[in-house]
Design brief:
Length: 461
């Protein structure tokens, strides 16, 4: 049986890897752009620097398992683990005992000076307030502010979760972006005590939280592409124009050509998948919204300024919010072989669902604005020796409250419309992190293989 994978990002590559492990299958990956999607690493200031994600979480095993399967074993943790918060015009270390910004202890919060006396008093009310009714889903803002007040939500949780997902807390589904917080709220009258119990019950495995391939994240995509080619997987650079479930198979159309397949995985953003499917597209695919983001990479002479030792970057709090959403001290996190004479490399992130300036400003205006904000945050006149602006248009899905139910209906309708021979995968559906995308790709591959009569779902070798 021959299967198509449309999209060569990490979700599509994971789907192709899963399908290619099944006996009797042939796989074709359609990708007109660079393989790897957002996993791009390029030379900057004399060293490889990631343009998109620079690490993956290891608390879920999908990424580490995939690295092991393709023989990618040169994985390293970040060298710096602490984070600063730019709030009220000053930089302060994030207090200990936070989980995605949600406090599990009040002592470090009290000593941090990040909340006003009234804000601290309101946060402490979580310990005595009656249990909050929690349904299947709720916005992060409603849950956190309802328990701890708006200062905790605005000054601690929004800088972290809001920057990760490029959206305000009021637009984010807790069930999708912070399921452990939702579980803690359901398990305890007090969210703080629920988080504390969850942390106490979690296995305290020694080791890092994040890992990355030493040469950069692109090496994961390139290693997977090589392993797929070694298995005989075909890569075609032709853009796909339509995917049509027909009879006992699926037709994939490219310019002037139509090819039959037993099944297809659409590992592309939801609106793109809807366009490819045309009349067969489930309701809801076109409704998933996206945000454009950008990453400005900066090289700075260390004689002028260098990031404080031991810190991996800074988050941004306060209203009105600046354009900068976060800043990564790249050479602190990933020093590699950099010496004291080499420039410091910093990555500045921008773009939120409620702030469309990333789409409106040209490259020069965007660069100047971010450099000015970075300088104000760190208290230095940042005069870079080199800059690189990486734009990622319509790249961050918005996970609204009820997103999981929307995705479930999309998958059900697509199975019905295609007799199980077409499935969707990627960040649009179950989460934006690399492990979540790998999981999505594997699951979609199992689904279309089973739909094509290839047997029940199972793991890839």
């Amino acid at each position: 049986m021959r299967f198509a994978v449309v999209g060569g990002g990490i979700s599509g590559l994971a789907a192709a890897w899963t399908l290619s492990a099944r006996s009797g299958t042939r796989v074709t990956v359609f990708e007109p752009g660079p393989v790897g999607g957002k996993l791009q690493t390029s030379e900057f200031a004399g060293r490889p620097v990631d343009e998109g994600p620079d690490a993956f979480l290891i608390r879920t095993p999908e990424a580490t398992q995939l690295c092991a399967e393709i023989g990618l074993d040169d994985l390293v943790p970040p060298a710096a683990g602490r984070t600063l918060l730019w709030s009220g015009g000053r930089l302060s270390p994030l207090p200990e005992g936070l989980v995605l910004g949600v406090p599990g202890r009040l002592g470090p919060l009290l000593r941090s000076g990040l909340l006003s006396p009234a804000g601290l008093a309101r946060a402490g009310l979580d310990l005595v307030l009656p249990r909050s009714p929690v349904g299947p889903d709720v916005s992060v803002e409603a849950l956190v502010a309802g328990r701890f007040g708006h200062q905790v939500a605005d000054r601690l949780v929004e800088p972290l979760l809001g920057s990760i997902h490029a959206a305000p807390l009021g637009e984010l589904s807790t069930a999708v972006v912070a399921p452990n917080i939702l579980a803690a709220a359901r398990s305890s009258r007090s969210l703080l005590l629920g988080m504390r119990r969850a942390l106490a019950g979690a296995p305290q495995a020694a080791g890092p939280i994040f890992l990355a391939p030493r040469p950069g994240m692109a090496s994961l995509a390139h290693g997977l592409e090589k392993a797929l080619r070694d298995r005989g997987v075909e890569f075609l650079g032709r853009p796909v124009t339509a995917v049509s479930p027909e009879g006992a198979g699926v037709t994939v159309a490219t310019a002037g050509r139509q090819e039959p397949f037993a099944g297809a995985v659409l590992a592309v953003p939801a609106p793109v998948a809807a366009g490819l499917l045309g009349p067969a597209a489930p309701a809801g695919l076109r409704d998933i919204e996206f945000t454009s983001v950008a990453v400005l990479t900066v090289a700075v002479d260390r004689a002028r300024w260098q990031p404080p030792a031991g810190f991996n970057g800074l988050l941004v709090a306060g209203r009105p919010r600046p354009l900068m959403t976060a800043c990564s001290f790249y050479t602190n996190k990933w020093p590699g072989a950099a010496g004291p004479a080499d420039p410091a490399v910093i990555r500045v992130s921008a773009g939120r669902y409620d702030d469309r300036r990333v789409e409106q400003l040209d490259d020069g205006e965007l660069t100047r604005t971010l450099l000015g904000e970075l300088g104000r945050a760190v208290g230095a006149d940042i005069r870079p020796t080199a800059t690189r602006l990486s734009r990622w248009p319509s790249s961050f899905p918005l996970y609204r409250v009820g997103h999981a139910e929307v995705v479930e209906r999309i998958e059900q309708d697509l199975r019905a419309a295609s007799a199980g021979r077409v499935s969707v995968a990627g960040a649009s559906y179950g989460g934006a992190g690399i492990p979540a995308c790998i999981r999505s790709g594997r699951r979609a591959a199992d689904s279309v293989h089973a739909g094509a009569g290839g047997g029940p779902p199972g793991g890839a070798g």
